[in-house]
Design goal:
Largest sheet: 7 strands, mixed
Protein name: Sugar ABC transporter substrate-binding protein
Structural class: alpha/beta
Distance between the termini: 28 Å
CATH architecture of the largest domain: 3-Layer(aba) Sandwich
Number of domains: 2
InterPro entries: Bact_solute-bd_prot1 (IPR050490), SBP (IPR006059)
Keywords: Signal
Pfam families: SBP_bac_1
Radius of gyration: 24 Å
Strand content: 5-15%
CATH class of the largest domain: Alpha Beta
CATH topology of the largest domain: D-Maltodextrin-Binding Protein, domain 2
Number of strands: 15
CATH superfamily of the largest domain: Periplasmic binding protein-like II
């Protein structure tokens, strides 16, 4: 997800604790009612018949209508509304099917989707998150429906592997991933030049070494310029930790998703590494745990030389808030412990068809249309989002852009940030879920060993429910 979506998702996860406690593919466009056989090579005649057939189909579809819900993306609500207005018009022109759409404010999305998954008003097609939770609370009647046939038709190989888990329950698909988000390292090129550094760090040792060279302090030892900060708005460190744990070779949950997997040397090392950046190496300020700490502002004002975990929409933030920083920073693939292997996380969200739809085939036609490379590229451009589709991410729009191309490279070294279990919306609920509490406590200087032990017990209880 993009940076704004991530911020809202923090709030949504906290709300979700309460809300969750309450509680034959037919292609209408490609197929025709007339079986046209070319027996004499009369291409023009066949072409005319196909056009006539498509016209008949569109006329037959004029009374068909589906409803689509999409979250709001971009800096203003009009961006999502204008996009949906344009693409629904194209869809109607192509198929004759009407689409009513609603763009949801992120602060209302969780409530609306929870109600939709428990018998309330629901769309035919939904831009979902927490898919596993909604599928579980919806049971056999509500929530997202299984669409293995549609996924097979569209093709699963075109999608970035790490994004697929957020569209599945077990081995079954209940959605198709579209928007995605990953995190990279930012560095101030002027600070690097001043310190004699010519390229970004590749591993943890270099990250600490660079951080020390870049950090500046006053006569009393107080940091005046941080060598490294985390992208940790509102003192949230869980997503940073997911990336660092990955870099150390560890994982949050077992492969079968039934128990924790970070009470290990890799888990302890990753959390100790984060704590040491503040309390041992002194390259990040202790005030980083203050909820008012603004990492974007720190970096854009020149008070930090590197920022760990930036999203693709950071450039839009810089252009809006700090135009003077243009060409003074770059993005780089995140370093890992050894310089090899996965070094970041990704987030994705699926488009799903709801079980309550009255017109499954029309809903499927919309999903196929929406998930086409053409529409997905347009969505990426308008919303400043990355895409789960590798073919879209290989478009020159991404590959030839010095900023976006780094994110394309980073997607080759990622693991999923959210875990595909229904309890995840409780496990990682901010600020009081087990993982956010543990990460914040450790960054404040608490014992890594004790916090891990307490958190493992709490999470395993949730997983056993």
């Amino acid at each position: 997800m993009n940076g704004e979506g991530s911020k809202m998702k923090m709030k949504l996860k906290a709300i979700s604790l309460f809300m969750l406690a309450l509680m034959m593919p037919v292609s209408l466009v490609a197929c025709s009612g007339t079986n046209v056989t070319n027996t004499g090579g009369d291409t023009a005649k066949n072409s005319g018949q196909n056009k006539e057939t498509q016209t008949v189909e569109k006329k037959e579809n004029k009374n068909r209508e589906i409803t689509v819900w999409l979250q709001r993306y971009g800096s203003t609500p009009s961006i999502s509304n204008d996009f949906m207005k344009d693409v629904t018009a194209k869809f109607k022109e192509k198929t004759g099917i009407n689409v009513k759409y609603e763009t949801l404010d992120w602060s209302q999305a969780l409530t609306k989707y929870t109600l939709a998954s428990t018998g309330g008003d629901a769309p035919d097609v939904a831009d979902l998150f927490f898919l596993q939770s909604f599928q579980k609370i919806g049971g056999d009647k509500w929530g997202p429906m299984q669409i293995n046939d549609l996924v097979k038709e569209i093709g699963v190989d075109k999608y970035i592997t790490s994004t697929l888990s957020e569209a599945k329950v077990g081995n079954d698909f209940y959605g198709i991933p579209w928007r995605m988000d990953t995190r990279v390292l930012l560095y101030n090129t002027e600070h690097f030049k001043e310190a004699g550094l010519t390229e970004p760090p590749k591993n943890w040792n270099e990250l600490i070494e660079y951080g020390k060279k870049l950090t500046k302090t006053d006569a009393n030892g107080n940091i005046t310029r941080s060598g490294l900060i985390f992208r940790n708005a509102q003192a949230r460190f869980d997503q940073t930790w997911f990336a660092v744990l990955t870099q150390a070779g560890g994982k949050v949950l077992s492969d079968d998703l039934t128990k924790t997997a970070f009470n290990t040397p890799e888990g302890a090392e990753s959390l100790q590494f984060m704590q040491d950046i503040v309390h041992k190496h002194n390259i990040a300020p202790k005030g980083i745990i203050d909820p008012s700490f603004d990492p974007n502002n720190e970096f854009l004002s020149g008070k930090a030389s590197m920022m760990f975990g930036a999203a693709a929409d950071f450039r839009a933030t810089q252009e809006k808030l700090a135009p003077q920083m243009k060409d003074k920073y770059k993005a780089a693939v995140m370093p890992s412990k050894t310089g090899e292997g996965p070094s970041s996380i990704s987030f994705a969200a699926p488009i799903s068809i709801m079980k309550t739809t009255k017109d499954v085939e029309a809903a499927k036609e919309w999903v196929k249309f929406f998930m086409s490379n053409e529409i997905q590229l347009e969505a990426s451009k308008r919303f400043s989002l990355l895409n789960s589709n590798k073919e879209v991410m290989n478009d020159p729009y991404f590959k030839n852009d010095p900023w976006l191309s780094v994110f394309v490279k980073q997607t080759e070294r990622v693991v999923p940030g959210d875990k595909p279990v229904a309890q995840w919306s409780q496990i990682d609920a901010f600020p009081n879920g087990p993982i956010p509490k543990m990460a914040t406590a450790i960054m404040a200087g608490k014992s890594v060993k004790d916090e891990i032990e307490n958190t493992v017990v709490e999470i395993n209880k949730l997983l056993a429910q």
